[in-house]
Amino acid sequence: MKKKAVFIYADAYLSYHFNEEHPFNQKRVLLTKELLEFSNSLSEEDIIPPRLASEEEIALLHDEDYIEAVKRAGEGKLSIEKGLQFGLGTDDTPIFPNMHEASSMIVGGSLTAVDAVLTGEADHALNLGGGLHHGFKRKASGFCIYNDGAIAIKYIREKYNLKVLYVDTDAHHGDGVQWAFYDDPNVCTFSIHETGRYLFPGTGYVNERGMRSGYGYSFNLPIDAFTQDESFLELYETALREIVHYFQPDVIVSQNGADAHMFDPLTHLCGSMKIYERIPELAHELAHEYCDGRWIGLGGGGYDIWRVVPRAWGQIWNVMKTDTVAVGPLPKQFLEKWQKEAPSALPAEWQDNEADFPVIPRKADIEEKNRILLQQLLNIIQI
Amino acid sequence: MLVEEIMKTDCITLPPNATIKEALHLLQEHRIRHIPIVDDHYRVIGIVSDRDVRDASPSILLKEPNEDDLLNEIHTIMSSPVLTVHPLDFVEEIAKVFYENEIACLPVVQHDRLVGIVTEKDMLYTLIQLTGTHVQSSLIEVKVPDIPGELPKVTSIISKRNLNIVSVLIYPYKNDPNYKIIVLRIRTMNPTPVIQDLRQAGYKLLWPNNIPEPKI
């Protein structure tokens, strides 16, 4: 019988590990998995282990000499100068042992997710280890080595020949995936993120529309710093519905960075758990309306790995598996097991407490600016 | 940066005896707004803008436009003499020429021959490149006293973190001549440690990085 959803996971995901001080920490995937297991919404038969992506598959996006450099770096055989040419050995993407294998496992996980959905094994698949959207053709950047999302989309195009909508809700612009398909009319990319005025990578302007035959298939909403739930969701939902209707995708690939939350240390957005409930609900609804359910969810950023990411990502799975988000208290066993390791008090409930959220003095201005942005975004498809 | 680094060298030109109609055609075909008029020795003797050509064209409101006007020779409507620049001029200097003369195009002339063209669009594009906004980076604005030695202090804090600076701009702080703002684009997705270092060194950062953790 066709499953509703599959969860791609192996402990090997934790080997994608730069160093102890680095903000990117894959322990959040394990935390999410355990949160879901203790909540009884994830069980053994839902989980598929990722396969290793082959070098040919990685080469669907990346140059062979880049892959070679990553391999050599992981073996400790790459010179510093050579590494820097490929963005390897920087503060953002330091070299670590066996980095090629660890990164190939993440790419393989996204390909496993694609195959599970497109061979009809399941309606939806979730690979929270993936979503590394800053990886470029021949450059590592922004904590990303191989761009599993872009490779997965290339793989879908090649093997299944379907029209792909890529939706990126990470607080950083999904630049690597956007540029990989900038001239491709069969892959539509939509990224909502904090404006690049201050935040990495700086791109993702509303006027980045694609080029040549891909013109009109790249969408960006660079929202203001300190945007909160209402404005985020107003823009996101309106834009996503319009874009899906306009593009008529066959499959949706979502990148679910969870760094637009107020607690996230790297960004200036001020969302709460509400956006992380609505994002998967919308993807789910639209996948069923337009794509016969075909939806592949990936992870992404998310740097408060204790208070934000497990709940935000847990809700994606809850929606995939049970059609609805979880409410109420988090399972006791989860809190008991992990609280001692966490640097701050773990939240007691799936939902945030509204009283914890500040009143932003510029709220009205932010909302006005964001609305103008939405109009600019949509004028191309609302003629 | 020099003009020769940003100028276009494949210039679209016309001889003085070409017709206005030819000019109109060239402007539309190449989607350009200016045509230098050159003689047999490629000397710039005039320039024609799309506005000059439009002024010489029959009104679109006329029921039976008389196209004969378009057969006049182009030198009858060209502007002359022409302001030109040299390939070794500084981009910053010619920005002033654009601004002060309220023009949108400058032919580049060397040894009395046309060698290139710079438009205000090229100029604007160059300025965008100079700010570094097209390169992956995070932006930090630091308020510093306007005294010698502040820039190296700030940049050495950044280099201690082994971070690459993509671009640096310095501009005055509002109307207070005692302070400057240093705008730094740094090649990292995680500027938090360096932001903390700068704060610890006593520097004031501008919004949104002026807010200590947690975010609000």
TrEMBL record, chain A:
Pathway: Ketone degradation; acetoin degradation. GO terms for biological process: acetoin catabolic process; epigenetic regulation of gene expression. The keyword Kinase does not apply. Residues 22-319 form the Histone deacetylase domain. Gene3D superfamilies: Histone deacetylase domain. Signal peptide: none annotated. InterPro entries: AcuC, HDACs, His_deacetylse_dom, His_deacetylse_dom_sf, Ureohydrolase_dom_sf. Keywords: Acetoin catabolism. It holds the Pfam family Hist_deacetyl. The keyword Nucleotidyltransferase does not apply. One of its GO terms (molecular function) is histone deacetylase activity. Belongs to the histone deacetylase family. PANTHER family: HISTONE DEACETYLASE HDAC1, HISTONE DEACETYLASE HDAC1-RELATED. This is Acetoin utilization protein AcuC. The lineage of its organism: Bacteria, Bacillati, Bacillota, Bacilli, Bacillales.
UniProtKB/TrEMBL annotation, chain B:
Residues 7-64, 78-137 form the CBS domain. It comes from the Bacteria. It holds the Pfam family CBS. Residues 139-216 form the ACT domain. SUPFAM superfamilies: ACT-like, CBS-domain pair. Keywords: CBS domain. The keyword ATP-binding does not apply. InterPro entries: ACT-like_dom_sf (IPR045865), ACT_dom (IPR002912), CBS_dom (IPR000644), CBS_dom_sf (IPR046342), Diverse_CBS-Domain (IPR051257). This is Acetoin utilization protein AcuB. The gene is acuB.
